[in-house]
Amino acid sequence: MWLFGAHGGLATTLVVGTRAIARGLAEARGLATETAAAAGIPWQPLADIVFGGHDIRRGDYASSAAEIHARTGTLAPELVRKLRSDLTAASKNIALGVMPNAGPTITGLAGKQRPRAGTLRQQIAQVQRDIRAFARRHRLDRVVCVNLTSTEPPLKPHAAHRSLAAFERALDDNRQQLVRPSAIYAYAAATAGLPFVHFTPSNSALLPAIRQAFAASGTPWMGCDGKTGETLVKTALAPMFKIRDLRVLSWQGYNILGDRDGRVLADRDNKRAKVATKDGVLPSILGYPLHTHVGIDYVPSLHDLKTAWDFVHFEGFLGTKMSLQFTWQGCDAILAAPLVLDLVRFADLAKRRGEAGPMPHLACYFKQPFEVDEHDLHRQWLMLTAYLERVRGERAR
Amino acid sequence: MWLFGAHGGLATTLVVGTRAIARGLAEARGLATETAAAAGIPWQPLADIVFGGHDIRRGDYASSAAEIHARTGTLAPELVRKLRSDLTAASKNIALGVMPNAGPTITGLAGKQRPRAGTLRQQIAQVQRDIRAFARRHRLDRVVCVNLTSTEPPLKPHAAHRSLAAFERALDDNRQQLVRPSAIYAYAAATAGLPFVHFTPSNSALLPAIRQAFAASGTPWMGCDGKTGETLVKTALAPMFKIRDLRVLSWQGYNILGDRDGRVLADRDNKRAKVATKDGVLPSILGYPLHTHVGIDYVPSLHDLKTAWDFVHFEGFLGTKMSLQFTWQGCDAILAAPLVLDLVRFADLAKRRGEAGPMPHLACYFKQPFEVDEHDLHRQWLMLTAYLERVRGERAR
Amino acid sequence: MWLFGAHGGLATTLVVGTRAIARGLAEARGLATETAAAAGIPWQPLADIVFGGHDIRRGDYASSAAEIHARTGTLAPELVRKLRSDLTAASKNIALGVMPNAGPTITGLAGKQRPRAGTLRQQIAQVQRDIRAFARRHRLDRVVCVNLTSTEPPLKPHAAHRSLAAFERALDDNRQQLVRPSAIYAYAAATAGLPFVHFTPSNSALLPAIRQAFAASGTPWMGCDGKTGETLVKTALAPMFKIRDLRVLSWQGYNILGDRDGRVLADRDNKRAKVATKDGVLPSILGYPLHTHVGIDYVPSLHDLKTAWDFVHFEGFLGTKMSLQFTWQGCDAILAAPLVLDLVRFADLAKRRGEAGPMPHLACYFKQPFEVDEHDLHRQWLMLTAYLERVRGERAR
Amino acid sequence: MWLFGAHGGLATTLVVGTRAIARGLAEARGLATETAAAAGIPWQPLADIVFGGHDIRRGDYASSAAEIHARTGTLAPELVRKLRSDLTAASKNIALGVMPNAGPTITGLAGKQRPRAGTLRQQIAQVQRDIRAFARRHRLDRVVCVNLTSTEPPLKPHAAHRSLAAFERALDDNRQQLVRPSAIYAYAAATAGLPFVHFTPSNSALLPAIRQAFAASGTPWMGCDGKTGETLVKTALAPMFKIRDLRVLSWQGYNILGDRDGRVLADRDNKRAKVATKDGVLPSILGYPLHTHVGIDYVPSLHDLKTAWDFVHFEGFLGTKMSLQFTWQGCDAILAAPLVLDLVRFADLAKRRGEAGPMPHLACYFKQPFEVDEHDLHRQWLMLTAYLERVRGERAR
Question: Which residues contact B102 (CB under 8 A, 6 or more apart)?
Fold first, then answer.
């Protein structure tokens, strides 16, 4: 598994957790691929996954885990101590990332550590060299890429994004303003034929041009923005209002979070991307326009313990107004890590089965599933189980 | 439509609301049978429904509506004024009900007004005579019965409940301790061949013996306990935890409500029935035992504005504990009335189609759907839409 | 009582409510001046209060009350019907207001109805003429003014605001950009010697220059921004954290509301004023800087049923983090109206007692009490009761 | 400091926390006696406090701390490791407690470990011998006792509780049914002249007879039931409704908690004591009777992370109903430990100052302050600060 954004809290939680499961120190909780629903499929064993990745900051997993523990209480020191050698090994697989046109907030995170420079073409080549070296070093048969980088400011649409040919010309001309880091990573994966999971809302990764690149190399991909918390609850609950014909007048959401994620989203530009992927789901499920808004604010003391309050105002029989409110208190990295493991296993399975392009059966994992027009969690889950049924059926033949 | 419990808040809301819709004074909000999902089915027109029923208290709809408005703000006086003649007409169709072995709390509600006495067989005959007279008076082709009486203390299981023959002997012997009012009403419907919807949790209505009576007369029935509020949310949300393999450690629910309903449930015996139908749904959806409890307390000032707080404690990746809490603030009669209309239409459709026995496709309407082992709201909804598809298919042929 | 903003929801609720109490149709609930704590003071009888005012929109109280009822359920039609002649009489006392430099959102509210124009001096003279005519017409001994106009965009500080002389020159020169409507109203009250209660957050009313004008005419005044909902709870709760030495890390507030108020606050400029008066209270009570933020969003379906969610993250013994969250669901006009009645009675009492300038004993009524450095609700209340004690003491002598 | 209930979670947190502060490993957060409000008083230095106590279970602080960390995340292993020798020393000071007539739930906690038996008089003598031995061993000048034992089932009132003479006869006659463990501990402290803080709701500790014993020996005491969480918030908030004359219609509280505390309270008898001390505060603050109820349920997965949901239904101007709800999520031992430290310091100060009997200035620490008729947290705090002012004044003279 190759992680873009390899030193973030999610990546650290993912590496620590996977190794803890591999060594029998933790249960494989939170993975659909480990439940009865996904039985009978030749999933990549968790214990055999090797981690590598790119990041714009230097770091190592043991100290990153200690920092996370101090902030959120997860990743217990006792556990991390037992995984020390695994974490040291994984830390050695992290190469310095790229940062073309990342915006001031993300650039600020890099600190004094300047990331790899060079032309866009040089950056892409370097990214691919790093992955190839990693695969060679660990004698890996397959590599799956996951994008976990910080949310970027939305990239303004441009003609060069619309076709692979135009995009490649822009790369040749080193037009840095037309890309962001996620675009470089996604393009590098696409042209190297590596399955790609886009777990963040950044719109630069799955530009039409880059999707064409994936198609050209026959490579599966999916995105975007992992559905971990408030939006997960929203897409589980909204169908209830539809089933009961209770008309939702307003659905107001308010998210507070700290940590690097919160800091990046405190930047109005970066926040825009996030709010966009969160705002569309309700009209799609309910079938009518409604007043809906998702506020996000930075509350440093919460660190990764994201808290969301949603207020749903709805109208029933005889126009009577009623309400439902919920408060979700979840640790984002803990919620996301098993989803990433699931997604990587699904992407790997698709690659082995010769499937290319978007993986619509993975819609339930994303706030904004690409090329799928279904946000209802329960219908998305039916798509997933139908896919698994199909795979099992084909294997049985 | 024949209502057992015809003077309660739900029945009043139902009558006012249906007539308001019939006269174009309100939208038909909250009815699945009025949505696109249920199009193409020859539903009984709402405007043609005539209301009658039994109750142990005397009353009339206009003053009952005024009382409800004063308490909960629903059933606006302006609206009720426009329906005055409709309400007067409906009020004339209410006969005095029966009350064998109802328990002290319900008996107390009747006040000085003593309900019809006589042997059980006499009471049953009287109930059926009342319904027949109503049908004749209004020249009705069909009558559907709905049980909306107050929650009774659970009836202790007895051998006489297990077979129709034994039960009929108990009726012949006038063994009042073996029945409660709901048993009499349900049996009367069954033997008269009238479709029966059991909307409350009382366990005396759908005893095995009575189900045999419905089978014998080829009559459709369904129950029990309308899924209007907290349990509705619960069965919409719980599947999310299953899909994400987030292990629910505890799901604690706390309901507060006032009004006659709350007063009846403040009686420990009557509450037992309610808690029982609410407690079973989670293990069924999640597939494992868990700590779960539903508290109910009487808060007079809330009247029918039921408020429920649920706290869900769950465990994710690496054993991390997180939580979700929600507060539901709904008006129970407003939520229930359109469900009753839907159910009556479905029961009427089933009768016309010659379907007898339980109607499992109506599971989504009940906290404890009889002879159905599915509590997941979304799967229940698929059962309903599949049934509608089948009906449409048969009609097309 | 003279109301600036006489056709708003608060003013309407105030007029309806006061007349309902006067006629014995409602209890005097929510007024401190009607409780045991304020006994023995010669308060102005509520029944003798005559209402007049300015507004930029035309209207009448009966239809305004009907509109409010349709939106929030308050001001029952049955009640309003009984007050019809009182409301008609009050409606006749409303004159057209002024609107110099009010900002586009407020100007938009006026609709086609253009408010009085003319130079600033002409506008001031007109305002005073309207009040004098009202007093003469109703043979009033005393008039107290209250500012209930919509929240204005903050007025940029200017040298002309700092001294009465400079401000009067600006008025003479008709420099409209240096004022807003509240400045005109407050100045008119000050120079006419009329006690003035500033119930909104607009910063133009109590400019230093205008406070000098009140001092010059020996007139009592107080402000600003009525403490009705979320901030009330905040200033009642925050002292608890101080008493227990529980360190507040973050106090995040999120308000949602509809109606004219919400629409005006949806304008970023107008919102700035509101957030400013809400943000300062916590550091003052707790005694240290902390992360605190008050978000406000416009949710039309709520109308005046303001809902606020506050999340308090705090640290106790051994650095353990804990949390408190609350949801406040209040009807703003209903909460504010009795405060206005209290304040007017206090201002009237002060005038009669010959007190001039700010009234610090009224701090508990305001989000931002002028010339008082105390936000703790309980200490503010002690200030009020001490004042009442003093008044009673002086009367006894 | 002598702890009755020395192996509970609160006692363990207290010992670990005090030693952590003593060694400079933690801040003294949560103690009023460490804030500016309490400056200038010769408090017992925290670092010089020596811990001893009685418990019915054997144990040691290091393993008890490890168990607490596993359950609630507090008492970090890194910290506990640094205090190992301190904890071992404290563990040696714990003697086996007494258990006359403790009720089945508490008796069950003792496990196979049978507590000291003998007559009541022998048990009392043994308790006093243990404390004297501890004081001698550590050359202590003074000992203050704190009752932290599990909540007992209420002791039925009896004539023998009303006078010291009658109570002593009952002890002489070894009438075990007239006492419970807390009575024995409190009587032992009283007759030994040791200041006594009753931190739990058990009604057997401060029986009138025992209060007479404290008076006879000139010893200060105070109780009962530490005000740590939901009741703390309640007594901070309720005055706000009084100040604003918002009439509280219902105040419904619902507490969920796990751990030994929750298990003991799951026993209906033990719960009765708790609910009683929680239920009285509101009518006292508000000045009128109201519908109020405090529910408590056992939710094992929460351990000591007590969660409380309160719903306040209130009525304002024109009879409009509104609501406030809050959710408190606190760790009970963490909230209580600094209160115990404060109380012990105050009791010690009182003893040194020659004050005997109840300490009403400590009312703010208790759910049910003895011989004080004030529940408003803010007024209670004024009592405390007035006392401190007096002490400072006397010292200055």
Answer: B56, B152, B180, B181
Contacts of B78 in chain C (CB under 8 A): 77
Express each pLDDT in C262-311 by its tens digit.
Answer: 777 777 766 776 666 666 799 999 999 999 999 999 999 999 999 999 99
The answer to whether residues C22 and C137 belong to one domain is: yes
Q: With an 8 Å Cβ cutoff, are B29 and A244 in contact?
A: no
Asked if residues A259 and A244 have their Cβ atoms less than 8 Å apart, the reply is no
A63: three-class secondary structure by DSSP: helix
Say if B32 is an interface residue toward chain A (CB within 8 Å).
yes
Interface test with A, best of B286, B310, B320 (most A CBs within 10 A): B320
Closest CA to B269 of B296, B230, B238: B296
Q: Do D317 and C13 touch (CB under 8 A)?
A: yes
pLDDT of D113 higher than 70: no
DSSP letter at B48 equals: G
In a domain, A397, yes or no: no
From the CA of D166, how many Å to the nearest CA of chain C? 40
pLDDT tens digit sequence for A57-82? 889 999 999 999 999 999 999 999 99
CA–CA dist B138, B115 (Å, integer) = 25
With 90 as the cut, is the pLDDT of residue A11 above it? Answer: yes
* D residues 267-326 closer than 8 Å to C (CB): 315-320, 322-326
Residue ranges making up the domain that contains D297: 230-331
Q: Which of C311, C331, C351 is the last residue of a domain?
A: C331
Query: Looking at CA atoms only, how far is residue D304 from chain B in angstroms?
Result: 14
Q: Does C35 touch chain A (CB under 8 A)?
A: no
At residue B114, the pLDDT reads 67
Domain match, D87 and D211 both: yes
D281-290 residue pLDDT tens: 999 999 999 9
CB contact under 8 A, B313 and D327: no
- Identify the domain boundary among C309, C331, C353: C331
Question: Which chain B residue is nearest to residue C326, measuring alpha carbons?
Answer: B327
B294: closest CA of chain D, how far (Å): 10
Same domain? For D130 and D274 the reply is no
pLDDT of D108 reads: 80
Q: How many domains does chain C have?
A: 2
Examine the domain organization and report whether A82 and A207 are in the same domain: yes
Q: What is the C-alpha separation between C1 and C348, in angstroms, rounded? A: 10
Confidence class for position A276, pLDDT limits 50, 70, 90: low
> What pLDDT is stored for residue A62 in this prediction?
96
Q: β-pairing, D305-315 with D321-331?
A: antiparallel
pLDDT attached to residue D115: 64
Mean pLDDT on C158-165: 97
pLDDT tens digits, one per residue of C168-211: 999 999 999 999 999 999 999 999 999 999 999 999 999 999 99
A243-275 pLDDT, tens digit each: 999 999 999 999 999 987 777 777 777 677 666
Most distant CA atoms of chain C, gap in Å: 69
- Tell whether A354 is covered by a domain: yes
Same domain flag for B375 and B308: no
The conformation of residue A370, written as its DSSP 8-state character, comes to T
Min Cα separation B74/chain C (Å): 10
Residue D327 forms contact with A (CB below 8 Å): yes
| Dist CA B360 CA B300 (whole Å) | 36
Report chain A residues whose CB lies below 8 A from the CB of B232. Answer: 240, 244
- Helix ranges (H only) for chain C are 9-22, 61-72, 77-82, 84-91, 104-109, 120-137, 164-172, 181-192, 208-217, 230-243, 259-266, 268-279, 281-286, 332-352, 377-396
> Distance (Å) from the C-alpha of residue A76 to the closest C-alpha of chain D?
10
Chain D residues lying within 8 Å of B297, measured CB to CB: 252, 293, 295
- Is B364 within 8 Å of chain A by CB? yes
